[in-house]
């Protein structure tokens, strides 16, 4: 089984983790810091970022830490973070697009997107594109996009991305996490067409005890836990992201997730993607749409 003991020395690597103050993002950042990376902890506010930095430095690590303020529900915030980062850094070895929100009460991003679609997909799409020039200029770089098994029930409803019609919290979560898979796979196809030395890899953490379920009511939460057979601790849920970020054998254009219980628990392995996630026509349509609405075009 692949664990964080398998992480090669990350000295000299610069790695961004979005949503680093909680759950899987925190454990991902901690493991990379322990392994020697320079980790940029992006959080929504400076207080959370400082607290996270202090908490991680209580552990013995070979790496170094830096904070960044990033609110993925605002394209202005995404642009401000990315522009600041590009001005102050000469390399970006790995971007881990981890931050996410699940089944909030109906709400929207600054630009009016349904919140989950906007944060989980649109914000990360823009972030990835804005940072891409630096990622591309860094040898053997990677982009890890964190999805979820919720992609299985997802579908992209191009007519309701701003909740123009109605809002179904779990349906929209599945849509956003399928969009993350499309982002990751379509990006890999486009990278291969350009010949850039970058891997785009999707990861999904299985079922874990984190704050992600904060909007679930108690009964629904208990039923969900029973359905998936129990929750893992977030250090274990971080392993697929870590595998995708650092394992020399990891491949672009695939999804890594836990290998047991239908992808909900276990240790990192390549997952079999369902046919709808491999639909290149929808992925291309979503990509073109995201480029148009964000004004961010890449990788060409
Ligand atoms: N936990 C699971 O079992 C599970 C299963 C499948 C997939 N996932 C995926 O794993 C990723 C991490 O989730 P988690 O379980 O660690 O959840 P979590 O404990 O709730 O952490 C989510 C992180 O995302 C950040 N975030 C939320 N909205 C944001 C925004 N608008 N801008 C920037 N950051 C924002 C949160 O910041 P704040 O603290 O400021 O809110 C937090 O740092 C998500 O993409 C999630 O979809 C988790």
TrEMBL record:
- Is Protein biosynthesis set as a keyword in this record? no
Work out whether the entry's keyword set contains Oxidoreductase.
Answer: yes
Give the matching SUPFAM superfamilies: NAD(P)-binding Rossmann-fold domains (SSF51735)
Q: Which UniProt keywords apply?
A: Oxidoreductase
Highest taxon listed in the record's lineage: Bacteria
InterPro entries referenced in this protein's UniProt entry, alphabetically: NAD(P)-bd_dom_sf, Sc_DH/Rdtase_CS, SDR_fam
Q: What is this protein called?
A: Oxidoreductase
Give the species.
Mucilaginibacter jinjuensis
